[in-house]
């Protein structure tokens, strides 16, 4: 890996088995600690925590395709939205459990991801062109869904509210900790999948294809196959995030499934935390999620000097936009990536 | 050359719609006039982008929000200073030029080495979020509009065209001519073309490449400066008004050829027509879906090599 490339990406350590054992151990400890959060967190903060978890899953997903795979996705909303719509369609129209939707949605999104990525890679779209193509695919799905009356057009789906708790439909009393533990579990699985991929032979091939596709090809690595594998895993994880999103917010429409802001929320935590690292997206989500809560509290009760801001919207996004620009320019490896480079093994 | 080919394709398709379509000629006439004028608006937004994308290789995701910013600036000039909106436009051009110049100089110039595509994209994305939400913070989300200083309609082939839209169209043509003149006839244009063709070579013969980058981004921003004032009379203004133009502008730029101002104008017209004439046959926002389909096909069949730039 050449120096200018490693400025943006962190090399994957090829420590094999012991390295991954350590990563699983860290994951276990982190998840256990996070699982205790509902015990200390006031109930009205649950929404922030769940939202942070959903976007952490999405950021982990983005990082597999774009961080490790080097295929910059600007349209992760496509995969997230497919998951969301599969769930809404199966549950609302057919009464099928969201757990099934997670499997079906993940498969559908992976299929869509592989098909579009295959077409894009086959025509040698790279860098900005690949990003624009992914964005266009997400926009096409957005427009398609808005125009399909069989998917309720611009109206979207409301998930019917049940009168009693149901594990199979993922519905509990409002503020129930299970609403938090389920996405935490999903996040843990997503990270575990990522650890497994990164430490596997396939994962090494994915990284080799990212760093120098021509050289990897020359070494006999079937570059396309491994790139598509990364895309498939990434899209499947994003779809699961989409399914849970609908279950928590009990609503989905074209914009909050396929809109550009979803793609952005997949990218931003990963970039802020550290692209191409295991923990970067989690660190990024842990920064971005509470930040929006902090700024909205500030807007509700501003100090005297900022009184003019009271009741205004937009400050949360401004803060993370500034953070995004500053990180890209001054800490291209992201918060976690830079710390790791400085103190890492 | 590519521009002429594009124009040919559009004309043939239009002829087919007239001859074989089941829509009345008056209906198609109206769609053509509306589409042409809409295409003028698209051209206005795309011209700056084609410079930024073609010369600097930067995917400026903030192009649309810079248009929104320019529209709000025009709105403030009109409502608080009582300026005529077209006079305000003249002020916006240098204003946005300065903004673009500074953005490139202070932010993007740090990310101009090879393989920084993602970094550039992320910074302009951040900028776009920053501008849109800054406007939301300052002006709120309620739609705003001004009354056009000139009203009325022109009749053309039995179709109706509102005067402010015609003015914007003429403005687009004038801007395209001015921009072409700058690029082809001035020393500055020569250095921009030199940097676009071979940055290292240009640096070796004494061109200050970083300054040319900044000026180019400034010119790209100045184009949306002009566009903001020209389209304000017939667009209702919210902090997200311009965003819809960003991806359309990329479609147009890729369609027309990177760095080609003429291509941006012809591409703008082609997409405008596709949207309105296509809208006769496809319901709702289906026409926009058609636009994206065209984009993807163009991306696939005309890979970057043909545009003479290897991003």
UniProtKB/TrEMBL annotation, chain A:
One Pfam family named in its UniProt record: BPD_transp_2
Segment forming the signal sequence: none
Keyword vocabulary terms for this entry: Cell membrane, Membrane, Transmembrane, Transmembrane helix
Chief place where the protein resides: membrane
Transmembrane segments: 24-41, 48-65, 71-92, 99-121, 127-145, 179-197, 226-246, 317-336
This protein's record includes keyword Cell membrane: yes
Topology term for the membrane: Multi-pass membrane protein
Annotated localization: Cell membrane
Protein name: Branched-chain amino acid ABC transporter permease
UniProtKB/TrEMBL annotation, chain B:
Residue runs in coiled coils: none
Annotated keywords: Amino-acid transport, Cell membrane, Membrane, Transmembrane, Transmembrane helix, Transport
Topology versus the membrane: Multi-pass membrane protein
Entry-linked InterPro entries: ABC_transp_permease, BCAA_transport_permease
Primary location: membrane
Sequence intervals crossing the membrane: 37-59, 91-109, 121-142, 162-183, 212-235, 247-273, 280-301
Compartments where found: Cell membrane
Similarity comment text for this entry: Belongs to the binding-protein-dependent transport system permease family. LivHM subfamily.
Designated name of the protein: Branched-chain amino acid ABC transporter permease
């Amino acid at each position: 890996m050449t120096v200018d490339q490693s400025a943006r990406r962190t090399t994957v350590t090829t420590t094999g088995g012991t390295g991954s054992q350590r990563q699983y151990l860290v994951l276990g400890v982190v998840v256990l600690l996070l699982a205790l959060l509902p015990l200390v967190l006031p109930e009205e903060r649950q929404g922030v925590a769940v939202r942070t978890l959903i976007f952490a899953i999405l950021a982990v997903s983005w990082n597999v395709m774009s961080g490790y795979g080097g295929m910059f996705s600007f349209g992760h909303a496509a995969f997230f939205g497919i998951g969301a719509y599969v769930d809404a369609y199966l549950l609302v129209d057919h009464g099928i459990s969201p757990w099934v939707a997670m499997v079906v949605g993940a498969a559908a999104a992976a299929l869509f991801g592989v098909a579009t990525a295959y077409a894009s890679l086959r025509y040698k779209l790279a860098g900005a062109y690949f990003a624009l193509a992914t964005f266009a695919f997400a926009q096409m799905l957005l427009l398609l869904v808005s125009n399909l009356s069989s998917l309720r057009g611009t109206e979207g789906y409301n998930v019917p509210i049940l009168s009693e708790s149901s594990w199979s439909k993922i519905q509990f009393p409002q503020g129930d900790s299970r609403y938090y533990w389920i996405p935490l579990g999903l996040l843990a699985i997503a990270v575990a999948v990522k650890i497994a991929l990164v430490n596997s032979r396939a994962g090494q091939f994915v990284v080799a294809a990212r760093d120098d596709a021509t050289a990897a090809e020359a070494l006999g690595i079937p570059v396309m196959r491994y790139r598509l594998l990364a895309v498939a895993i990434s899209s499947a994880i994003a779809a699961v995030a989409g399914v849970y999103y609908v279950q928590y917010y009990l609503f989905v429409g074209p914009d909050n499934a396929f809109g550009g802001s979803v793609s952005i929320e997949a990218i931003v935590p990963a970039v802020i935390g550290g692209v191409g690292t295991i923990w970067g997206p989690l660190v990024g989500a842990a920064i971005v999620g509470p930040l929006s809560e902090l700024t909205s509290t500030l807007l509700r009760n501003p100090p005297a000097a900022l009184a003019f801001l009271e009741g205004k919207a937009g400050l949360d996004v401004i803060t993370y936009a500034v953070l995004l620009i500053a990180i890209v320019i001054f800490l291209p490896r992201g918060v976690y990536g830079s710390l790791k480079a400085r103190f890492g093994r | 050359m590519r521009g002429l080919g594009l124009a040919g394709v559009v004309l043939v398709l239009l002829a087919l719609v007239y001859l074989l379509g089941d829509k009345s000629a008056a209906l198609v006439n109206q769609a053509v006039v509306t589409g042409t004028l809409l295409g003028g608006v698209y051209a206005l937004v795309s011209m700056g982008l084609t410079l930024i994308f073609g010369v600097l290789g930067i995917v400026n995701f903030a192009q649309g929000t810079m248009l929104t910013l320019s529209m709000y600036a025009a709105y403030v000039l009109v409502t608080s200073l009582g300026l005529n909106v077209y006079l305000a436009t003249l002020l916006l051009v240098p204003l946005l030029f300065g903004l673009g110049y500074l953005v490139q100089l202070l932010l993007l110039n740090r990310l101009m080495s090879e393989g920084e595509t993602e970094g550039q994209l992320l910074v302009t994305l951040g900028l776009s979020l920053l501008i849109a939400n800054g406007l939301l913070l300052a002006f709120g989300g309620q739609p705003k509009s001004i009354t056009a200083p000139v009203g009325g309609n022109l009749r053309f082939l039995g179709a109706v065209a509102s005067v402010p839209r015609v003015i914007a169209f003429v403005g687009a043509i004038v801007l395209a001519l001015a921009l072409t003149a700058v690029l082809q006839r001035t020393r500055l244009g020569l250095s921009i073309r030199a940097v676009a063709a071979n940055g290292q070579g240009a640096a070796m013969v004494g061109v200050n490449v970083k300054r040319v980058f900044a000026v180019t981004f400034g010119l790209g921003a100045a184009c949306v400066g002009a566009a903001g004032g020209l389209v304000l009379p017939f667009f209702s203004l919210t902090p997200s008004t311009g965003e819809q133009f960003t991806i359309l502008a990329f479609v147009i730029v890729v369609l027309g050829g990177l760095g080609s101002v003429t291509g941006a104008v012809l591409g703008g017209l082609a997409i405008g027509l596709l949207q309105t004439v296509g809208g006769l046959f496809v319901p709702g926002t289906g026409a926009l879906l058609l636009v994206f389909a065209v984009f993807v096909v163009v991306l696939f069949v005309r890979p970057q090599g043909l545009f003479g730039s290897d991003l």
